[in-house]
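Interim report to the steering committee. The following record documents the input for Replicative superfamily II helicase (799 residues).
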Amino acid sequence: MDGELRWPVFTDTGPLYSAQSPSSVLAPVIRDLASLRGHGIPQVVLDAWAERIDELNDLQVATINQGRLLAGANVLVTAPTSSGKTMIGELAAVRAARLGGRSVFLLPTRALVNEQYARFSRTYGPAGLQTIRATGETADDVPALLQGQFDLAVLTYEKFAGLALGNPHLLKLVSVVVIDEVQTIVDPGRGAYLEFLLTVLKARRPEGVAPQVVALSAVLGDLGGLDSWLDANVIARTERPIPLLEGVLGPDGIYRHLDADREEASEQLIRPTGWTQRNQDLIIPLVRKLVGEGQQVIIFRSTRGLTRGCARYLAQSLGLPEAKAALESLAGADPSAVLADLRQCLAGGVAFHISDLARDEKIAIEDQFRAPDSGIRVLVCTTTLAQGVNLPAETVIMVELDHPTGPTQTAPYSVAEYKNIAGRAGRLGLTDGGRAVLIAGGGIDGDRRWHDYVLGKPEDLRSQLLNPEQDTATLLLRVVAVASRREGTTGLNEADVIAYLSNSFAAHQQRLAGAPDPFPAATVSAVLRDLVDAGLLSSDLSGIELTELGTYVSQSGLRVSSAVRVARALRAVHPAALNRVTIIAAAQLTDEVTSARPPVNGKGWQREQATYIGELQRHGLAGPVLAALPGRERKTAAERAKRAVACMWWMAGVPIGRIEQQLMVHLPSKDAAGAARASADRTQSVVGTVIDIARCLHPDAQLDDLARVLSVQLEFGIPPELVPLAQRAGAVLDRTDYLRLAARSLTDPAVILDAADDVLLPCLNGNTSKLKSLRQAARAARDGEDSTDFADLLPASTD
């Protein structure tokens, strides 16, 4: 053969390859939605999208064409808030559904899950696509999820991770995993959980578990290898589809900002106020000007107290008309001090949105703020609202740039957090543009905020598993849980655990940096021994295995330290003493409920402790759990006792105003509706695991009834006789609806079905839509009751 060997250069696919691999030769899409027809998107879905958007934007087109989204490739999309990222996940999900696959959308909060679920149901239900959700609430449809009876499922990170741990087949059912707000992977509180979930996906690839991963994020700094770890095509944009002005306003009244082209500009936005120490001297004239121009405004404050105070002085100062529709929507709400405060603010056209409000109260405010010609012109809120609830506002105002991390501690916002909040201004499809205003004290403070935040770049990504304070024990317990369920696995050793951890983002980052393994053998060995000593693992010649207790804990959201604390207390309890107050009080020993902090009198904590522990003892609290209530801080026992008592009263159907009054008997100037609701909410999230631990330690204990009712009672604040109804009606009825039914002895489904409309409607504040839902729920509860009488099948023996 003369010369060098020359291989042919393939410049296009042939007809046989195209027939076998059509996804690789799909025509590029353009902005026109109709161009998606060639990718198999059904016309009924295109019509539904056309009601929401006129066309695809550049980000979406690039993700399809360059990112090969509709060819099934993994993608990592980073773009500013309001860039249409969620639509990218929907595109992948609809493609998967067309091919017979299922998609899971993972979000960081329950509120986001419920909002997304409602929108997906409206959009895709008419197209024949089934949407389900799971957040740890009564409305969860876990059986359908585990049986694969869905097209789209929307879950929180934690709920999906727990289900995937306990049900290894679940990941095999899923074709697409959409992770919204994937920047959460660097969050100190939740990042490790999200990283663990993604590590599970990577580690199970050898088993054929390889769903398409669609990771959606706000603008990030250096990716730190996240893209290569996910094997994802990166589509990164910094421009917004609608313009945003972003800057600082000081006492001189000058708004120093970046314009839509990211060039520095200045504008005399309000009159100079002169030197001032009060933020309201800037906020009031600024908001008055903006509202006078017809704008809606959102103001972010760092604490609930500052939020309520700001809303009050704006309502008093602006002279706006009352938000009549919003006030009417709250007419039947459960009275409390915070609700009375909200009503006063709404009378002045201003609302606030904080965790102290009941779920239905927050939803009412959100719905009314979105409504056309809304009477709510100003909404003051804490940063929890910035995590994605889709509210339109032309202007966002930020005051503090730190958030509380404890009773007296704060931490500064990261640049990424600030940018996410600023991006709430001018939402795509809802407003034409946006403006973000940072309130500054002038001089050095204004310059610092300008340079550090307005001009700042988002931080580089770094795995939270590299944090020296990371909870390694909980991580390793979950790793053992997943690794031990792999097909063909007969026993684990330390090397297997380390090999599994090598799939983590932390290990990937260390390899890229040429740094040591983040999980050295000595550390892994020591932690595994601790887990054996705690009774969560067993170890013998055959390897490492989960104990029954370890199985329950690994599938829960509890930290190992919490589970050990609960198990230590419950182990000494006599099975007959495992009543509801003992279970509820044991739940207060967990770290996961401590974010609910009922106020405790700092000087009179002993008196408070005696009062509320006495109430728990009156209900039969078991001695070993009582003995476990004190903690490292002197007020810990009082806090735990107040949370437990609040839960007991809440489940008994005591009106929230009465609970508030009794919780604050030693602090009459405070209000506590929010603390009471938060206590019930946090306890509801862990009570199932506490019962599982009790069952494991005391197999003969009679806990079935408590397991059936406690979670539902804690979620809705209702007595046990209403549980069957609430399991069917869910949040369609609010707490006041349920309690009015109970007050009229309308708790039995058969009685409700026999009752006339004019008897039921007063219990539902005259709402005919709720009446229809109530009757449907009562019918389902009646028909679903287990009324089997085995005596009808076989009479009792007489010999």
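The two ends are 100 Å apart (CA to CA). The committee is asked to note this result when reviewing the revised timeline.
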